[in-house]
Amino acid sequence: MNNRIKVFIIISFLFNFKVNSQNLYRVFFKDKKNTEYNPYNYLHPKAIERRILNGIDLCDSSDFPVNNDYLNKILEFSDSLKGISRWMNVAFVFANNDKIKTIRKFPFVKRIEIVEREFNQTICQTDSSNTDTIRNNYIYELAKAQTELFNIKILEDSMLSGKGIIICIIDVGFKEYKSNPTLQHIIKRNGILATYDFIKNSKYKNNGLSHGSSVFTCIAGKIGNLKLGLATDANFLLARTENFMEFISEEENWLMAAEWADKNGADIINSSLGYTTHRYIPENMDGKTTFVSKAAQIASDKGILVVSSAGNEGQSKWRKITAPGDAEGVLTVGAISPKYGIHSNFSSYGPSADRRIKPEVTAYGRAATWVRLGFGALDGTSFSSPLVAGFAACIKQKFPKLSNYELKELICKSGNLYPYYDYAHGYGVPNAENIFNKKITDSTTFLIEEDSLEINIYPILKETNKIKPVSLFKTQLPKYLYYNICNQSGYIYNYNVVEFKKENENIITINKSKWKKPFFINIFYLNYYKQILIEK
Amino acid sequence: MNYLKLIPFLIILISEAKAQEYIMNIDVGQDTIASRFGPKRKLNSAFYIGLGLIAGKSENKPPSEINYGRSYSFRYGYWRRYKINKFYSIGGSFEYFYKEYNLKKNLFADSSSIYKLKFSKQISNNAGIALFNRFHFSEDYIFIDLGGYITYDLYPKIVTKETSKSSGFENKKSIYVKPKMINTFNYGLEAKLTFDFLSIYARYRISEMYNNYKGDLPKYNFGITADFEN
After folding, report:
1. What single DSSP character describes residue A75?
2. What is the pLDDT of residue A124?
3. What was the pLDDT predicted at A121?
4. How many CB atoms lie within 10 A of CB A458?
5. What's the pLDDT at A463?
6. pTM of the model
7. Which residue of A has its CA nearest to B72?
8. Which of B20, B28, B39 shows the shortest C-beta gap to A423?
């Protein structure tokens, strides 16, 4: 046979494989009839405590198991079971087209969704710079600055290091985390409560990448007395849910990992993963459409604070935040540049597709962490998110009675820009000082001149309102002026960051005719905030 | 030329004169551009490969007669469509279209030839474009395409292998590159039935294959193509 024909036949078989091979399906059940559930047998005492604290029914129907008879019935017609979810009352099964047609006819099946197979990178890491020892001045300074940004001194003075808090890290793998020198203090005190690999369906055995290990360092890493993350005394659950390049969707794994975290008493979930193209479009980022965002929202409703990276799509066509960062209950973290103190170009922009504020807060998008062979600086919102997750654990330790939503609100309010916000920085970088000491605001900093066409704003730096600058990496808090134009419901039309070159010529001129009246101008300058209403 | 040296100083002066710099200016209304395509966007374009067979009767037998089982075509290309509405799209494609006719007779052999024909292949390496109307059925997964195509044969050739009638083992291989008798410019009609990413196609060549030659090779070509997702 001609060689070309042989090649074609092989290729045809490969395509045919796609048609006849097993697809992954989500089979949703109509009910949970005849199932029994005892929360005290199923849930970790910490999970029960969290539910009581958040006023969640201990016998909520979503916690009941999936009906075993239903499961057995569909297993007769499917090829294998990938997993189940109590929360969504769904089984994930591999089956071919013919078999799924039979399953669809069962009266207890509510609906079936096929899981699209796509190769897609989901981790929110862009580049890594040189790895080096911690003695390297750049890495050392960066490591110091990434925690100082949150005001680590106040946290340390208050003995806050996430003690008693359980953080679940959902990631692509934690390769060699046991030999990671920044995590030895946690390993020695058995601070890793459990691990699970949802790809292999077994205890985690050093599979996958080391991305999760680097993320772990940004939550709780410590080398000597230098903290790389803030929650050094927290306990951890490690869940691997991803392959580096996604083949069959791992959103199901994310859901199962969140359930596992809930069951094991997690207070906080950190997810440095983002689901975007091929499967979804930016308009799906409304917190209600993507499977993983629905899962994250349920986790939030169970009282867990889900901290998610905003995504690294700022320079791509996508531009917007990624799932599950779009879910309402999720604390979404964008990235700022350590060098300039403002939005990092790669960090995804908000708002959510239904116009909610996203990301809510920011942290450094370049972090000093452990990168398998040594210390290095990694870029990406993957590392902003764990920095904030570590901070959240400290605040939760300080205020254990706070619900996850109250905790999220408190963190947002502690943002260095709060009450100002925009869709690149959210409320800014959370700062412990703003939680423990009331934030000073003084609107007299701004002098306003207005005529029928324009409004001129002069920020005046008075001697009395010169503030103590927050330390930034090798720099001081930049003297940027932030302002946005928004409507009465808070939706921003336009936002800006301005740097004044000359202190005596600080002026912002806004053309009033450009925006539909009434609108608000929100201005933030050196810790001072003012809102101006422009009426008809 | 000395004035040029002043340019950097002028630039510095101008930048110093600016009292403020907008580091970020984002217009959210313009920033939020609605996607033009939905989640089925991948259906709007794809690369494809295909294999086909030759069918139909030859004209002026026997010189144009072919061995059907050994004659085939190969396609590799890219198609794109623009969806007009739920039921209809227009689209086009460009492709590399390889066609090999396994001839029963050596077109160049005379009656006195001492060689026995082992094979004679007419090979065309076409670059082609096509336009089609696409009619949608069953939620964008089943289509019928009707359209036309044009191909240009970049490198036509006839490869012939013969063996000596007397000895039985003396071979002769002849390659006629770009023979003038072959029409390099061809066009025809195409119909295609698509199920998701697999298509069955049929092509009918309207143009004549040969110039100044009484006869033509079979005009039909049918086969399957498979899309690669973008």
Report:
1. H
2. 56
3. 53
4. 13
5. 52
6. 0.72
7. A5
8. B28
Question: Given B19, B28, B226, which is nearest A493 (Cβ)?
Answer: B28
Residues of A within 8 A of B226 (CB-CB) are 11-12, 15
CA distance B92 to chain A (A): 23
| pLDDT score recorded for residue A2 | 57
The three-state (H, E, C) secondary structure of chain B, written as one string: CHHHHHHHHHHHHHHHHCCEEEEEEEEHHHHCCCCCCCHHHHHHEEEEEEEEEEECCCECCCCCCECHHHCEEEEEEEEEEEECCCCEEEEEEEEEEEEEEEECCCCCCCCCCCEEEEEEEEEEEEEEEEEEEEEEECCCCEEEEEEEEEEEECCCEEEEEEEECCCCCCEEEEEEECCCCECCEEEEEEEEEEECCEEEEEEEECCCCECCCCCECCCEEEEEEEEECC
* DSSP bridge pairs for B119: B161
- Kind plus residue range of the DSSP H or E element containing A9: helix A3-20
% residues pLDDT > 90 (chain A):
58
In which band, very low, low, confident or very high, does the pLDDT at A375 lie, cut at 50, 70 and 90? confident
pLDDT digits (tens, 9 = 90+) for B56-108: 988 875 667 889 999 999 999 999 988 787 788 899 999 999 999 998 877 66
Written as one letter, the residue type at A264 is N
State how beta strands B220-228 and B198-205 pair.
antiparallel
- Shortest distance between the Cα of B218 and any Cα of chain A, in A, equals 20
CB pairs under 8 A between A and B: 87
Q: How many CB atoms lie within 10 A of CB B58?
A: 20
